[in-house]
Amino acid sequence: MGGHPHNSSEFPPFTLTGLPGLETSQHWVFLLLGTLYIVSIVGNALIPFIIKEKQSLHQPMYYFLSLRSVNDLGVSFSTLPTVLATFCFHLRKISFDSCMAQMFFIHFFSFTESGILLVMSFDCYVTICNPLRYATVLTDARVARMGMSVIIRSFCMVFPLPFLLKRLPFCKANALSHAYCLHPDLIRLPCGDITINNIFGLFVVISTFGLDSALILISYVLILHSVLAIASWEERLKTLNTCVSHMCAVLIFYVPMVGVSMAARYGRHAPQYVHTLMSLIYLFVPPMLNPVI
Fold first, then answer.
1. Using CA atoms, how far apart are residues 65 and 76, in angstroms rounded to an integer?
2. What pTM does this model have?
3. Of 120, 140, 157, 257, which residue is most buried, by most CB within 10 angstroms?
4. Rounded distance, CA 61 to CA 151, Å?
5. CA gyration radius for the chain?
């Protein structure tokens, strides 16, 4: 692999990486990650089932919650095969196409999660700021269209990424920094011009995470303005309690994501295990904590 450029048609394989320095404890690491997987999968599988069975939960807020749980299941199942292979069976090679497919699904579910949090913030806004029109604004048909819009947007954003990578030559060792394929990790491996990839990647991040987080912030500013207009302190707290779980979900999703971005941009001289741990927190903690919340 070293020194000779690979044409994308040759599909060079990639080498997955566990936790540096903990090669002798990989089984214990997988035991921890396996526990997180079990909690995440069982918890997120129960939520749609409970919502489906209980007629009283057939409301927009719970539809969005069910969609987010299904999305979190997608995140868990996207990383599970390679994490299991790396930490449990010490199988570190992954084919080019498999890596591209895994990268697609990981980022697709991440972008979808951001969009779901955005539509859930709109649900909170209507609930608090315009409760009398809630039933007419958030009809079942509109909720379905909002969900489909989030999914279609995520697909359109992620779909070009594998093709933009496939056109580039690979001439390095093709060793990844994680036990799964992420675009920021893959983009540093080609030896060709990656300007288009960088520009498109920046556009995707700004138009998804950047736009969504800004709109969520605006919605909470409007919610806070509406809550402060309530005279009674007890009523203010009662009103805010309706959105506490959503605020926690937003923080759990965006704080690790910002941490991963900051570590990648400004922590290049930090030990490799720092980057690995940050990415594990970003991909494993939110799906595990969301059912608890």
1. 17
2. 0.89
3. 120
4. 17
5. 21
pLDDT band at residue 67 using 50, 70 and 90 as cut-offs: very high
What is residue 180's DSSP assignment? Answer: S
DSSP per residue, 49-100: HHHHH-GGG-SHHHHHHHHHHHHHHHHHHHHHHHHHHHHTS---EE-HHHHH
Confidence band, pLDDT 50/70/90 cuts, at residue 3: very low
Q: What is the C-alpha separation between 200 and 161, in angstroms, rounded?
A: 8
Nearest to 198 by CA among 207, 187, 209, 206: 187
Tokens standing for residue 156: 């359109």
Amino acid at 171: C
pLDDT digit string, tens, across residues 149-180: 999 999 999 999 999 999 888 876 788 888 89
270-291 average pLDDT score: 81
H/E stretch holding 262: helix 244-266
Pairing between β-strand 93-94 and β-strand 14-15 as defined by DSSP bridges: antiparallel
208 neighbors 157 (Cβ within 8 angstroms): yes
| Buried b / exposed e along 80-90 (16+ C-beta atoms within 10 A) | bebbbbbbeee
Q: Provide the CA 1 distance to its chain's centre, in angstroms.
A: 31
CA–CA distances in Å: residue 73 to residues 104, 106, 165:
15, 11, 27
pLDDT of residue 8: 43
Contact in structure between 187 and 107 (CB atoms under 8 Å): no
| C-alpha to C-alpha distance for 131 and 49, rounded to whole angstroms | 28
